[in-house]
């Protein structure tokens, strides 16, 4: 079987699994779990085989015309380069682990068949984005992911948080997709093709007439899909969905799609220095702002959500300085350890009966109850904080090295201003990342108080995948020196200067947070904290849903808890109340967009009801009155008709005589 045939099967198998799961979900529920796992697992095996065959060498292209359009044709095309085949392996491996984890996490969920089918469809859509060589086919996968995220984030639709989060995720990403679609058409109009290879060839030959406009339009869609400032606000709220969905969205699909898209079309963006500077500023604000917000969150999943936004900022920063190898390297590395973090967080929430870090800090023995989650989460947090020798250290260093080279003029793909922006913001974000990673670990696993409730041994399906994903979390970075051929031939090894500098500031951030925790932890014993909904016999998904509901009921918000023992509150000081709300961006958008739109809608409704309807109803009323008058004349009485005829004749005769006399007198 040829490599292109194998590659075509990779997105096709999860799609067929989704269709089959939906078809037999009600009639043969026993087949749902195998149909969720086996097609995705087979796709993972095939993706690995495709990656081995491609081998980091010359890109493999295959295409057939999908439909004639009369102008720019649309092709069903595959483009398999080193980036594509490695990202496909990440997507399929993480998706397989999520499907396996979900069999235990949602073991008693009545909606599991539709959930599993949507996860398979989500996976298939992302693989279509990864392998596609035509932008219109890529757009199909791009939009399917959007609708899948709507349904999966809203899985707990009984809760108001899930309903609002799913709608917000859909609307905010669609807000970015409108200019994105316009940008795709403008790009095709300039280059004469939707094929990625032809577009890149046209760009290399100077065939792009409006590079800045096209790049900025495309960046709007990327900002929405990959949760970059200013369209990032949907991602923290999307934590209202099940934890396995969060892991899939954050590690391997959806948010990775925007970064991957820019990496695929980087020469288009590099054709405009202004666009790269805009991307650099966007990435810098995202990195620093999300780090501050993560340090203030009480919900363990929202901490990880803001962490994802910040790490995506690093990837955007690498692209802003023209190094897509570093960006995709960090994308793959981040996908591994972020999947561990979210899936381990699901175990933690189930064991503690709460998603509140403040509540966990009042419990003891959580690490002993869930040793698998404890150790794997510890490793993943070290990778997140970029501590050597874990994967996050090497991939984050690749980003900082690329920024350093651009800032010092060693690379000229992007302006030096973009390099300095990313380098400084990256170092600041490294301090914040270490700080919120240490805070999460201390509050979750070093709590003091009553013994954590015993929920029994965690299911093997949930704990085994943690260890599977921990392997690349530990070892993937060590392959940096051997992966140059897969990443455009660029070296990904760290430099001494940035390695020492970033590791130093990381250790400072971690130690300062530890000191703040030691200072504030004495307050925990005399500050009772609620929001615990522990049910020892309940499935993890039910515990998570009730934990979210109780958190909002007790604290009034899912993001914050009035905890004076929180080291994040001490470190942020007066900035805490702003950081916990995401710096009031939701309130700003409500004032600038939501309220004016609603006011306009109310005005339109008033005009429709009170003005338009008045004219329409008035026309009907006049017609009805005329009909009533005519109806009264139609009595059916012959004598009345004869009398009326005579009266009319008499009136006409009199009028004729009067008219004749008037004419005679004149």
Characterize the structure shown.
It is a single chain. The protein is mainly alpha-helical and 666 residues long. The chain folds into 3 domains: 1-267, no CATH class; 271-338 and 351-526 and 540-564, no CATH class; 634-665. It contains 27 helices and 4 strands. The protein has helices spanning 3-24, 32-54, 82-105, 112-131, 135-153, 160-191, 196-204, 211-225, 234-237, 243-251, 255-264, 266-270, 273-294, 300-320, 324-352, 357-360, 366-369, 371-384, 391-407, 416-445, 460-475, 496-520, 540-555, 567-572, 576-579, 585-633, 638-665; strands at residues 60-67, 74-80, 363-364, 450-451. A two-stranded antiparallel sheet has the order 1-2. Strand 1 and strand 2 (74-80) form a beta hairpin. Helix 3 runs parallel beside helix 15. It is globular. It is a multi-pass membrane protein. Residues 132-403 form the NADH:quinone oxidoreductase/Mrp antiporter transmembrane domain. One of its GO terms (cellular component) is endomembrane system.
């Amino acid at each position: 079987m040829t490599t292109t045939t194998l590659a075509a099967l990779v997105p096709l198998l999860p799609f067929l699994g989704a269709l089959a799961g939906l078809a037999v979900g009600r009639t043969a529920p026993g087949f749902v779990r195998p149909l969720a796992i086996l097609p995705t697992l087979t796709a993972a095996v095939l993706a690995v085989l495709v990656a081995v065959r491609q081998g980091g060498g010359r890109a493999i292209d295959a295409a057939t015309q999908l439909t004639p359009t009369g102008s720019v044709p649309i092709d069903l095309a595959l483009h398999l380069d080193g980036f594509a085949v490695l990202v496909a392996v990440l997507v399929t491996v993480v998706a397989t682990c999520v499907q396996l984890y979900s069999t235990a996490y949602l073991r008693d969920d009545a909606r599991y068949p539709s959930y599993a089918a949507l996860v398979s469809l989500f996976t298939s859509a992302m693989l279509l984005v990864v392998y596609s060589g035509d932008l219109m086919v890529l757009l199909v996968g791009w939009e399917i992911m959007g609708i899948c995220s709507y349904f999966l984030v809203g899985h707990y639709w009984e809760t108001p948080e899930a309903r609002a989060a799913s709608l917000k995720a859909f609307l905010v990403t669609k807000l970015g997709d409108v200019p994105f679609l316009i940008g795709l058409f403008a790009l095709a109009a300039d280059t004469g093709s939707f094929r990625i290879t032809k577009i890149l060839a046209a760009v290399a030959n100077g065939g792009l007439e409006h590079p800045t406009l096209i790049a900025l339009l495309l960046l709007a869609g990327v900002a929405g899909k990959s949760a970059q400032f200013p369209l990032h606000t949907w991602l923290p709220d999307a934590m209202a969905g099940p934890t396995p969905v969060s892991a899939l969205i954050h590690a391997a699909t959806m948010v990775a799609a925007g970064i991957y898209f820019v990496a695929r079309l980087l020469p288009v963006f590099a054709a405009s220095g202004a666009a790269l500077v805009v991307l650099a500023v966007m990435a810098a604000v995202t990195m620093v702002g999300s780090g501050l917000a993560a340090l203030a969150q009480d919900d363990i999943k929202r901490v990880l959500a803001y962490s994802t936004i910040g790490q995506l900022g690093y990837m955007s920063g690498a692209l802003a300085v023209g190094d897509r190898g570093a960006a995709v390297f960090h994308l793959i590395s981040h996908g591994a350890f972020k999947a561990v973090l979210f899936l381990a967080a699901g175990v933690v929430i189930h064991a503690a009966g709460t998603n509140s870090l403040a509540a966990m800090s009042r419990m003891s023995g959580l690490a002993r109850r869930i040793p698998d989650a404890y150790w794997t989460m510890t490793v993943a947090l070290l990778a997140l904080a970029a501590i050597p020798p874990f994967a996050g250290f090497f991939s984050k260093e690749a980003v900082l090295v690329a920024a350093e080279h651009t800032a010092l003029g060693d690379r000229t793909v992007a302006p030096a201003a973009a390099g300095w922006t990313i380098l400084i913001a990256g170092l600041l974000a490294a301090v914040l990342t270490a700080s919120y990673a240490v805070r999460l670990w201390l509050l979750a696993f070093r709590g003091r108080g009553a013994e954590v409730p015993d929920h029994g041994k965690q299911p093997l399906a949930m704990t085994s995948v943690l260890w599977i994903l921990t392997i690349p979390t530990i070892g993937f970075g060590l392959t940096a020196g051997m992966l140059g051929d897969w990443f455009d031939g660029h070296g990904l090894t760290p430099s001494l200067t940035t390695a020492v500098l970033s590791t130093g500031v990381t250790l400072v951030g971690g130690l300062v947070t530890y000191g703040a925790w030691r200072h504030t932890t004495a307050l925990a014993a005399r500050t009772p904290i609620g929001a615990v909904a522990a049910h020892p016999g309940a499935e993890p998904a039910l515990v998570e849903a009730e934990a979210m509901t109780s958190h909002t009921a007790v604290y009034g918000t899912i993001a914050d808890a009035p905890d004076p023992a929180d080291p994040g509150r001490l470190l942020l000081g007066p900035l805490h109340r702003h950081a916990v709300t995401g710096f009031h961006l939701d309130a700003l958008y409500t004032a600038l967009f939501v309220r004016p739109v609603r006011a306009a809608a109310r005005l339109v409704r008033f005009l429709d009801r009170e003005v338009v309807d008045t004219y329409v109803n008035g026309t009907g009323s006049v017609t009805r009155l005329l009909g009533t008058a005519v109806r009264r004349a139609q009595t059916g009485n012959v004598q009345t008709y004869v009398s009326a005829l005579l009266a009319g004749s008499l009136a006409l005769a009199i009028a004729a005589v009067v008219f004749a006399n008037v004419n005679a007198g004149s």
